Amino acid sequence: MCLSTVYNEKHEMLAKNVATVKAEKGRLIFTDIMGIPTVVDGRIDKVDLMENEIFIAQSEKQPA
């Protein structure tokens, strides 16, 4: 089983043991093996399948 860890551009861990990734309306939804989703605004920058790492570029939050 290959599970991944998700990092932002500052190499801060955002999610671990990620089993699925879904892109939806400018957001990425990372779901871990327990079924817990982590939602991040941004885009995938790099996926390293050998190291099981996903790097994302987070979008700037817009003021409400």
Can you give a write-up of this model?
By secondary structure, this protein is an all-beta fold. It has one domain. It is built from no helices and five strands. It has strands at residues 4-7, 13-24, 27-32, 37-48, 53-58. The protein has a five-stranded mixed beta barrel with strand order 1-2-3-4-5. It starts with a strand and ends in a 6-residue tail after the last strand.
Explain the layout of strands and helices:
Layout: E1 4-7, E2 13-24, E3 27-32, E4 37-48, E5 53-58
Parallel strand pairs: 1-5
Antiparallel strand pairs: 1-2, 2-3, 3-4, 4-5
Concise summary:
This protein is mostly beta strands. The chain has strands at 4-7, 13-24, 27-32, 37-48, 53-58.
Compute the average pLDDT: 93
How far apart the termini lie comes to 41 Å
What percentage of the residues does DSSP assign to strands (E)?
over 45%
Structural class: mainly beta
Using the CA coordinates, give the radius of gyration: 11 Å
What is the count of β-strands? Answer: 5
The percent range for helix content is under 10%
Shape: globular
Topology order in helix (H) and strand (E) letters: EEEEE
Widest β-sheet, arrangement of strands:
1-2-3-4-5
**Count of alpha and pi helical runs:** 0
Main sheet: strands, sense, barrel:
5 strands, mixed, barrel
